[in-house]
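Let us practice reading a record.
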Amino acid sequence: AYSISIDNTLLNNNLYDIYYDAGATTKLSLRSSTLTCQSDYPYSDNPYLKSPYSPGTINNSGVYLNNSASSAIQIGDYGNSNYINTFRNMNYGIHAIYSSITVYNNNFLHMKGLPYLCSYPKVCPYTGIAILADGSSGNINYPPTAIIGGTLPNQLNYIQDCWRGVDINDYNQIYIENNIMTNTNNKAPFFNPTYGNHAIYVIIPDATTRGIAYCQYDVQISTNNITNFTTGIHVYGNLGTASLVPPFGDKSCSNNVGYININNNVLTTSPRGIMNTGMLAEVTNSRIYDVLPVTISQNNISIANYACINLKNYWQHPTLGALIVDHN
Protein backbone atom coordinates (compact mmCIF):
# COMPACT_ATOMS: atom_id res chain seq x y z
CA ALA A 1 0.00 0.00 0.00
CA TYR A 2 1.09 3.56 -0.68
CA SER A 3 1.52 5.98 2.20
CA ILE A 4 1.07 9.06 0.00
CA SER A 5 -1.51 9.06 -2.79
CA ILE A 6 -1.89 11.99 -5.19
CA ASP A 7 -4.45 11.41 -7.94
CA ASN A 8 -6.01 13.79 -10.50
CA THR A 9 -4.41 16.78 -8.79
CA LEU A 10 -3.12 20.14 -10.05
CA LEU A 11 -0.01 21.36 -8.20
CA ASN A 12 0.69 24.86 -9.49
CA ASN A 13 3.08 27.67 -8.53
CA ASN A 14 4.95 25.99 -5.70
CA LEU A 15 8.70 26.24 -5.18
CA TYR A 16 8.65 22.43 -4.72
CA ASP A 17 5.51 20.45 -5.46
CA ILE A 18 6.63 17.26 -3.66
CA TYR A 19 9.68 17.31 -1.35
CA TYR A 20 11.32 14.21 0.16
CA ASP A 21 13.76 15.14 2.90
CA ALA A 22 16.79 13.14 4.00
CA GLY A 23 15.98 9.57 4.93
CA ALA A 24 12.34 9.65 3.81
CA THR A 25 11.24 6.33 2.28
CA THR A 26 7.46 6.79 2.22
CA LYS A 27 5.91 5.15 -0.84
CA LEU A 28 4.36 7.54 -3.32
CA SER A 29 1.44 7.04 -5.68
CA LEU A 30 1.40 9.89 -8.19
CA ARG A 31 -0.91 9.52 -11.14
CA SER A 32 -3.10 11.51 -13.53
CA SER A 33 -1.73 14.74 -12.04
CA THR A 34 -0.19 17.96 -13.34
CA LEU A 35 2.79 19.65 -11.68
CA THR A 36 3.45 23.06 -13.19
CA CYS A 37 4.23 26.73 -12.81
CA GLN A 38 1.70 28.71 -14.85
CA SER A 39 -0.44 31.78 -14.62
CA ASP A 40 -4.07 31.38 -13.68
CA TYR A 41 -6.61 30.24 -16.27
CA PRO A 42 -6.30 30.36 -19.29
CA TYR A 43 -2.81 29.22 -18.29
CA SER A 44 0.40 30.37 -19.92
CA ASP A 45 4.01 29.34 -19.28
CA ASN A 46 4.94 32.57 -17.52
CA PRO A 47 6.81 32.26 -14.19
CA TYR A 48 4.19 32.95 -11.60
CA LEU A 49 5.38 32.28 -8.06
CA LYS A 50 3.99 34.85 -5.65
CA SER A 51 5.39 36.55 -2.53
CA PRO A 52 7.77 35.95 -0.80
CA TYR A 53 9.45 34.89 -4.08
CA SER A 54 10.69 37.44 -6.58
CA PRO A 55 8.50 38.22 -9.59
CA GLY A 56 9.35 35.88 -12.43
CA THR A 57 10.57 33.06 -10.15
CA ILE A 58 9.77 29.61 -11.51
CA ASN A 59 9.24 26.25 -9.77
CA ASN A 60 12.51 24.70 -8.68
CA SER A 61 11.31 21.07 -8.92
CA GLY A 62 8.17 19.04 -9.38
CA VAL A 63 9.55 16.22 -7.21
CA TYR A 64 12.68 16.77 -5.10
CA LEU A 65 14.38 13.90 -3.27
CA ASN A 66 17.24 14.42 -0.85
CA ASN A 67 19.34 11.45 0.34
CA SER A 68 16.99 8.47 0.15
CA ALA A 69 19.27 6.08 -1.73
CA SER A 70 18.50 2.94 0.23
CA SER A 71 14.88 2.63 -0.96
CA ALA A 72 13.82 3.61 -4.49
CA ILE A 73 10.94 6.06 -4.80
CA GLN A 74 8.68 5.33 -7.78
CA ILE A 75 7.37 8.40 -9.57
CA GLY A 76 4.48 7.51 -11.84
CA ASP A 77 2.15 4.55 -12.28
CA TYR A 78 2.15 2.42 -15.44
CA GLY A 79 -1.00 0.48 -14.52
CA ASN A 80 -3.06 2.46 -17.04
CA SER A 81 -2.20 4.91 -19.85
CA ASN A 82 -4.59 7.42 -18.26
CA TYR A 83 -2.37 7.54 -15.16
CA ILE A 84 0.23 9.64 -16.98
CA ASN A 85 1.50 12.71 -15.08
CA THR A 86 2.57 16.01 -16.61
CA PHE A 87 5.53 18.11 -15.40
CA ARG A 88 5.62 21.51 -17.10
CA ASN A 89 7.50 24.81 -16.99
CA MET A 90 9.95 24.38 -14.11
CA ASN A 91 13.69 24.14 -13.55
CA TYR A 92 13.64 20.38 -12.94
CA GLY A 93 10.80 17.93 -13.32
CA ILE A 94 12.44 15.44 -10.96
CA HIS A 95 15.58 16.37 -9.00
CA ALA A 96 17.17 13.54 -7.00
CA ILE A 97 20.15 14.08 -4.70
CA TYR A 98 21.74 10.73 -3.80
CA SER A 99 18.34 9.06 -4.05
CA SER A 100 17.27 5.93 -5.89
CA ILE A 101 14.41 6.59 -8.29
CA THR A 102 12.10 4.73 -10.64
CA VAL A 103 10.31 6.93 -13.19
CA TYR A 104 7.40 5.61 -15.27
CA ASN A 105 4.58 7.09 -17.34
CA ASN A 106 5.30 10.82 -17.14
CA ASN A 107 5.24 13.69 -19.61
CA PHE A 108 7.88 16.44 -19.21
CA LEU A 109 7.22 19.64 -21.14
CA HIS A 110 8.75 23.06 -21.70
CA MET A 111 11.71 23.23 -19.32
CA LYS A 112 13.85 26.06 -20.54
CA GLY A 113 17.56 25.99 -19.83
CA LEU A 114 19.51 29.02 -18.71
CA PRO A 115 23.08 27.75 -19.19
CA TYR A 116 24.56 31.23 -19.27
CA LEU A 117 23.83 31.51 -15.53
CA CYS A 118 26.48 28.83 -14.95
CA SER A 119 29.27 30.05 -17.19
CA TYR A 120 32.87 29.54 -15.99
CA PRO A 121 34.07 30.04 -13.29
CA LYS A 122 30.66 30.00 -11.56
CA VAL A 123 29.57 26.49 -10.52
CA CYS A 124 25.87 25.74 -10.28
CA PRO A 125 23.48 23.13 -11.68
CA TYR A 126 22.07 23.81 -15.11
CA THR A 127 18.32 24.31 -15.36
CA GLY A 128 15.69 23.05 -17.76
CA ILE A 129 16.26 19.34 -17.06
CA ALA A 130 13.40 16.87 -17.05
CA ILE A 131 15.15 14.32 -14.78
CA LEU A 132 18.29 15.33 -12.86
CA ALA A 133 19.98 12.82 -10.53
CA ASP A 134 23.23 13.54 -8.68
CA GLY A 135 24.83 10.81 -6.57
CA SER A 136 28.13 12.53 -5.88
CA SER A 137 27.32 13.03 -2.19
CA GLY A 138 26.06 10.56 0.39
CA ASN A 139 27.04 7.17 1.78
CA ILE A 140 29.52 5.68 -0.69
CA ASN A 141 28.70 2.14 0.52
CA TYR A 142 25.19 2.33 -0.96
CA PRO A 143 25.34 3.67 -4.53
CA PRO A 144 21.96 4.86 -5.81
CA THR A 145 20.01 3.39 -8.73
CA ALA A 146 18.04 5.17 -11.46
CA ILE A 147 15.40 3.47 -13.62
CA ILE A 148 13.93 5.76 -16.27
CA GLY A 149 11.28 4.07 -18.41
CA GLY A 150 10.95 0.38 -19.18
CA THR A 151 9.77 -2.17 -21.68
CA LEU A 152 6.29 -2.90 -20.27
CA PRO A 153 3.23 -0.99 -21.55
CA ASN A 154 3.00 2.59 -20.22
CA GLN A 155 6.43 2.54 -18.57
CA LEU A 156 7.92 4.98 -21.08
CA ASN A 157 8.30 8.70 -20.40
CA TYR A 158 7.80 11.56 -22.87
CA ILE A 159 10.23 14.49 -22.79
CA GLN A 160 9.57 17.47 -25.06
CA ASP A 161 11.17 20.91 -25.34
CA CYS A 162 13.62 20.67 -22.45
CA TRP A 163 17.24 21.79 -22.26
CA ARG A 164 18.25 18.30 -21.14
CA GLY A 165 16.17 15.16 -20.95
CA VAL A 166 17.96 12.88 -18.47
CA ASP A 167 21.11 14.00 -16.61
CA ILE A 168 22.64 11.45 -14.21
CA ASN A 169 25.90 11.83 -12.29
CA ASP A 170 27.63 9.20 -10.10
CA TYR A 171 24.99 6.47 -10.10
CA ASN A 172 26.34 2.96 -10.65
CA GLN A 173 23.09 1.28 -11.71
CA ILE A 174 21.35 3.17 -14.53
CA TYR A 175 18.60 1.91 -16.81
CA ILE A 176 17.16 4.34 -19.38
CA GLU A 177 14.82 2.46 -21.68
CA ASN A 178 12.05 3.06 -24.20
CA ASN A 179 11.59 6.80 -23.70
CA ILE A 180 10.61 9.37 -26.33
CA MET A 181 12.55 12.66 -26.31
CA THR A 182 11.90 15.45 -28.81
CA ASN A 183 12.49 19.15 -29.33
CA THR A 184 10.52 21.45 -31.58
CA ASN A 185 12.67 24.46 -30.63
CA ASN A 186 16.05 23.16 -31.85
CA LYS A 187 15.96 24.09 -35.53
CA ALA A 188 18.45 24.64 -38.34
CA PRO A 189 20.49 26.61 -39.10
CA PHE A 190 21.04 27.57 -35.45
CA PHE A 191 21.21 25.61 -32.22
CA ASN A 192 18.82 26.98 -29.59
CA PRO A 193 20.91 27.57 -26.44
CA THR A 194 17.93 27.09 -24.13
CA TYR A 195 16.49 23.84 -25.55
CA GLY A 196 17.81 20.50 -26.75
CA ASN A 197 21.33 20.43 -25.31
CA HIS A 198 21.44 16.68 -24.46
CA ALA A 199 18.75 14.04 -24.51
CA ILE A 200 20.76 11.73 -22.21
CA TYR A 201 23.90 12.75 -20.31
CA VAL A 202 25.50 10.19 -17.97
CA ILE A 203 28.66 10.64 -15.88
CA ILE A 204 30.05 7.31 -14.68
CA PRO A 205 31.48 7.34 -11.13
CA ASP A 206 35.20 6.95 -10.59
CA ALA A 207 35.72 4.01 -8.23
CA THR A 208 39.17 5.27 -7.28
CA THR A 209 37.57 8.20 -5.50
CA ARG A 210 34.07 6.89 -4.70
CA GLY A 211 35.06 3.53 -3.23
CA ILE A 212 34.90 -0.20 -3.89
CA ALA A 213 31.07 -0.27 -4.00
CA TYR A 214 31.27 1.59 -7.32
CA CYS A 215 33.47 -1.00 -9.05
CA GLN A 216 30.57 -3.06 -10.35
CA TYR A 217 28.34 -0.73 -12.33
CA ASP A 218 25.66 -1.45 -14.92
CA VAL A 219 24.42 1.11 -17.42
CA GLN A 220 21.76 0.21 -19.99
CA ILE A 221 20.56 2.85 -22.47
CA SER A 222 18.28 1.21 -24.98
CA THR A 223 15.26 1.57 -27.29
CA ASN A 224 14.94 5.33 -26.78
CA ASN A 225 13.66 7.54 -29.59
CA ILE A 226 15.53 10.88 -29.69
CA THR A 227 14.87 13.79 -32.07
CA ASN A 228 16.43 17.26 -32.39
CA PHE A 229 18.93 17.32 -29.54
CA THR A 230 22.35 18.89 -30.09
CA THR A 231 23.84 15.71 -28.56
CA GLY A 232 21.69 12.62 -28.36
CA ILE A 233 23.50 10.34 -25.88
CA HIS A 234 26.67 11.34 -24.02
CA VAL A 235 28.46 8.93 -21.67
CA TYR A 236 31.41 10.42 -19.82
CA GLY A 237 33.76 8.79 -17.35
CA ASN A 238 37.15 8.50 -15.73
CA LEU A 239 36.75 5.11 -14.15
CA GLY A 240 40.09 3.81 -13.02
CA THR A 241 38.34 0.44 -12.64
CA ALA A 242 40.11 -1.54 -15.34
CA SER A 243 43.76 -0.78 -14.68
CA LEU A 244 46.14 -3.67 -14.27
CA VAL A 245 49.23 -1.51 -13.81
CA PRO A 246 49.62 0.26 -10.45
CA PRO A 247 49.57 3.06 -9.52
CA PHE A 248 47.07 3.79 -12.27
CA GLY A 249 43.49 3.18 -11.24
CA ASP A 250 42.14 1.16 -8.33
CA LYS A 251 43.95 -2.19 -8.22
CA SER A 252 41.17 -3.78 -6.16
CA CYS A 253 38.74 -3.08 -9.00
CA SER A 254 40.88 -4.58 -11.74
CA ASN A 255 38.78 -7.67 -12.34
CA ASN A 256 35.40 -6.32 -11.28
CA VAL A 257 34.48 -3.95 -14.07
CA GLY A 258 30.92 -3.14 -15.03
CA TYR A 259 29.56 -2.53 -18.49
CA ILE A 260 27.80 0.17 -20.44
CA ASN A 261 25.43 -0.98 -23.18
CA ILE A 262 23.92 1.51 -25.63
CA ASN A 263 21.71 -0.32 -28.06
CA ASN A 264 18.60 -0.16 -30.25
CA ASN A 265 18.17 3.60 -29.94
CA VAL A 266 16.90 5.82 -32.75
CA LEU A 267 18.49 9.28 -33.04
CA THR A 268 17.61 11.72 -35.78
CA THR A 269 16.25 15.13 -36.67
CA SER A 270 12.90 16.24 -38.01
CA PRO A 271 12.55 18.51 -41.07
CA ARG A 272 14.47 21.72 -40.26
CA GLY A 273 15.58 20.15 -37.00
CA ILE A 274 19.24 19.86 -36.06
CA MET A 275 21.51 17.36 -34.29
CA ASN A 276 25.26 17.86 -33.94
CA THR A 277 26.37 14.49 -32.50
CA GLY A 278 24.30 11.35 -32.20
CA MET A 279 26.40 9.59 -29.56
CA LEU A 280 29.48 10.72 -27.67
CA ALA A 281 31.51 8.30 -25.54
CA GLU A 282 34.25 10.15 -23.70
CA VAL A 283 37.06 9.28 -21.31
CA THR A 284 38.60 12.17 -19.37
CA ASN A 285 42.04 10.62 -19.92
CA SER A 286 43.69 12.01 -16.80
CA ARG A 287 45.22 8.57 -16.17
CA ILE A 288 46.65 6.69 -19.09
CA TYR A 289 45.31 3.26 -18.07
CA ASP A 290 41.67 4.28 -17.53
CA VAL A 291 39.06 2.78 -19.81
CA LEU A 292 35.34 3.23 -20.31
CA PRO A 293 34.10 -0.16 -21.57
CA VAL A 294 31.16 0.56 -23.85
CA THR A 295 29.16 -1.54 -26.30
CA ILE A 296 27.32 0.52 -28.93
CA SER A 297 25.17 -1.72 -31.12
CA GLN A 298 22.02 -1.87 -33.23
CA ASN A 299 21.41 1.89 -33.09
CA ASN A 300 19.91 3.91 -35.93
CA ILE A 301 21.56 7.35 -36.16
CA SER A 302 20.87 9.71 -39.04
CA ILE A 303 21.28 13.32 -40.19
CA ALA A 304 24.02 14.31 -37.74
CA ASN A 305 25.68 17.65 -38.43
CA TYR A 306 29.08 16.57 -37.02
CA ALA A 307 29.24 12.86 -36.14
CA CYS A 308 26.89 9.93 -35.75
CA ILE A 309 29.24 8.36 -33.16
CA ASN A 310 32.10 10.33 -31.61
CA LEU A 311 34.74 8.55 -29.50
CA LYS A 312 36.99 10.80 -27.44
CA ASN A 313 40.24 9.88 -25.66
CA TYR A 314 39.82 6.14 -26.22
CA TRP A 315 42.49 3.51 -26.11
CA GLN A 316 42.29 -0.29 -26.17
CA HIS A 317 43.09 -2.10 -22.91
CA PRO A 318 45.41 -5.07 -23.66
CA THR A 319 43.27 -7.64 -21.81
CA LEU A 320 39.91 -6.08 -20.92
CA GLY A 321 39.26 -4.10 -24.06
CA ALA A 322 37.32 -0.89 -23.99
CA LEU A 323 34.92 -0.48 -26.86
CA ILE A 324 32.66 -2.46 -29.17
CA VAL A 325 30.79 -0.69 -31.98
CA ASP A 326 28.70 -3.15 -33.94
CA HIS A 327 25.81 -3.16 -36.45
CA ASN A 328 24.74 0.47 -36.16
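A brief commentary: The chain has one helix and 28 strands.
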